[in-house]
Amino acid sequence: MTTYSDTRIGTGPFLFVSGQTPSEADGTVPGDVEGQVRLVLAKIRDRLAEHGRGWDSVVKLTYYLRDIADLDVLREVVVDVVPQPRPAATLVAVDGFVDPAFAVEIDAVADLGAA
Length: 115
Known about the structure:
alpha+beta; CATH 3.30.1330.40; 4-stranded mixed sheet; globular
C-alpha cells in the first residue's frame, strides 16, 4: 500500500496549507484516529477548494502523529481519500499537540501551476 510518491515536480506558484488539526468548528474533536485523519484531510481539501484546486495539485504532505502505532490507520485513510499520484510525504512522530485530544496534524504544499 503506497501512500506517497518518492518525488513530485512542481512549477509554482505554490500554496502552503498550514497544519490542519482535528477540531470541528465547534471545538469538538473526533474520539478515534480514523475520524481525526478524515477530518484533517477534509479541512485540507476545503483549503484547496478555496483556491480552486483539488488533491491533484498537492505535491507534498507532512503528517504529524502523536502515536506511531496509529500509522496503519493513517495509511488506510490516505489511500481512501488521496488519489494517485499521491504527494511526496514526510511522517513525523511528536510527543504531543497543543490540544492533548489531538492524535494527528497534517500540512500540505500545493502547486498552483499544476493543471
